[in-house]
Amino acid sequence: MTGQPDTPLIEVRGIGKSYGSVIALRDVSTVVNAGEVTCVLGDNGAGKSTLIKILAGVHRHDSGEFLVEGRPVSFASPRDALELGIATVYQDLAVVPLLSVWRNFFLGAEPRKSIGPLKFLDRREGRETTKRALADMGIDLRDVEQPVGTLSGGERQCVAIARAVHFGAKVLILDEPTAALGVKQAGVVLRYVAQARDRGLGVVLITHNPHHAYPVGDRFLLLNRGAPLGSYEKSEIDLAELTSQMAGGAEIEALEHELRSVNAK
């Protein structure tokens, strides 16, 4: 990616997507800047997955503008997004559990060495490069030959993040990376999200958990039923208000009032 220093890595303006008569996303706007984390929050059905798929090149938007460093784009495939440095780590990670950590790290891009006309898998280069890339992110694995399926969920997420950084991602989209993790493992993943941000990447963190988003987030986009519920800089909202909006503060207050009325009878 190239462009002016102040130009967002990604900007969407009034973006929308429909599937037949079903409106999955409408009038959504946000930006992703280098060295910042943009958090996209919402419950199931809020439109988070649709937004990810548009940014990742899986689907094309129907309306609005999608800009990458100021240039309008409409991706035909995920490869188009990758070529512009946009990498997506999905919740299921798409790893091969029985393959080693380093083989998963290079999956589809394995290093080769030549002996005459023959090419062979360069295992030593693969292991050393993987160890070095993980160490650069502060990830210390005992053995990169161990099957990736033996790692914890948090460790697998961290390997996927390090892989994206190593292969030149400028924007890292993380799909619910802490959803299936306990408190300690979620903290480990969030630490590496912050490291990716501090290395100058623009990060899009998709989550339904404001307690995970707020510590690392610089910007918060709240979605509800495919539409924006609010968009805030960190200085404009605190954790309590973010949590209240996510939980549907007005609806909760109305329910509490209703329950108090019932109990008083």
UniProtKB/TrEMBL annotation:
<dbReference type="InterPro" id="IPR003439">
    <property type="entry name" value="ABC_transporter-like_ATP-bd"/>
</dbReference>
<feature type="domain" description="ABC transporter">
    <location>
        <begin position="10"/>
        <end position="250"/>
    </location>
</feature>
<dbReference type="Pfam" id="PF00005">
    <property type="entry name" value="ABC_tran"/>
</dbReference>
<keyword id="KW-0067">ATP-binding</keyword>
<keyword id="KW-0762">Sugar transport</keyword>
<dbReference type="InterPro" id="IPR003593">
    <property type="entry name" value="AAA+_ATPase"/>
</dbReference>
<dbReference type="InterPro" id="IPR050107">
    <property type="entry name" value="ABC_carbohydrate_import_ATPase"/>
</dbReference>
<dbReference type="GO" id="GO:0005524">
    <property type="term" value="F:ATP binding"/>
</dbReference>
<protein>
    <submittedName>
        <fullName>ABC-type sugar transport system, ATPase component</fullName>
    </submittedName>
</protein>
<dbReference type="GO" id="GO:0016887">
    <property type="term" value="F:ATP hydrolysis activity"/>
</dbReference>
<keyword id="KW-0547">Nucleotide-binding</keyword>
<keyword id="KW-0813">Transport</keyword>
<dbReference type="InterPro" id="IPR027417">
    <property type="entry name" value="P-loop_NTPase"/>
</dbReference>
<dbReference type="InterPro" id="IPR017871">
    <property type="entry name" value="ABC_transporter-like_CS"/>
</dbReference>
